[in-house]
Amino acid sequence: MSGGHRPDEIEVKLPAADLGANRRRLEDRGASLLRGRHGESNDLYDDAGGKLSASGCALRLRRVDAECWLTFKGPARFAQGIKTREERETSVGNAEEAEAILHRIGLARRFRYEKRREEWRLLDCTIALDETPVGDFVEVEGDPAAIPKVVAALELDFASAIPYSYARLYALKRKENPALPEDMVFAGP
Question: Which structural domain range is residue 132 located in?
Answer without folding.
Answer: 6-176
